[in-house]
Design a protein that fits this description.
It contains nine helices and eight strands. With 186 residues, the protein is α+β, with helices and mostly antiparallel strands. A hairpin with a 5-residue loop joins strand 4 and strand 5. InterPro entries: cNMP-bd_dom, cNMP-bd_dom_sf, RmlC-like_jellyroll.
Length: 186
């Protein structure tokens, strides 16, 4: 399974760093519905998705789920806030499909980042892209109609749409399931 990650970043990371990355990885197979992080736990792992689909979400005081992000093959996922601050998470991460994952513990991964400029640069690039995606999503929520947000979601994430229940897409878009159904009927 590590070969899939290796192929994904092979041109970026030198062989000696790849060997060190291989030495600290752990493979995990999870079933659909399995929770990987719960609210109140500290996120101490970063996850590379080899196969499957995960989500990061929060639950508000009315027990409503608000999906912050999805993750599919060749994506990295964690609760960035808890991971970087070592404070309890406000979020959950669970599997929407049976998934094959590569897990890196924060202590091992951080040490490797400190000693590998190429891997550090790659991780920084991922963080910047994640930040920009989050900023763009906030802007879209503030300035675009529900229909435009839906159309943007389809363009940006066409492979996720068919893998995720509609009520979760509605949650991600910040609309009701009824509104999403009406938009899709157009």
């Amino acid at each position: 399974m590590f070969e899939i990650l290796k192929n994904h970043i092979d041109k970026i990371i030198p062989n000696e760093d790849m060997d060190r990355l291989r030495a600290i990885h752990r493979v995990k197979k999870v079933k659909k519905g399995q929770v990987l992080l719960s609210e109140g736990q500290v996120c101490t792992q970063t996850i590379y998705i080899v196969k499957g689909c995960l989500r990061v979400y929060r639950i508000n005081d009315n027990a409503e789920e608000h999906i912050l992000k999805f993750g599919i093959e060749n994506w990295w996922i964690n609760d960035g806030e808890s991971y970087s601050t070592h404070k309890p998470s406000k979020s959950y991460i669970d599997a929407l499909e049976d998934s094959d994952l590569i897990i890196f513990d924060e202590s091992d991964f951080s040490g490797l980042l400190e000693s590998s400029p190429a891997l550090k640069s790659y991780a920084d690039d991922l963080s910047v892209k994640s930040y920009h995606a989050g900023t763009e999503r906030i802007y879209e929520h503030m300035s675009l109609s529900a229909e435009d947000r839906y159309n943007n979601f389809l363009k940006k994430y066409p492979t996720i749409f068919n893998r995720v229940p509609l009520h979760m897409i509605a949650s991600y878009l910040g609309v009701s399931k009824k509104t999403l159904s009406r938009i899709r009927a157009k």
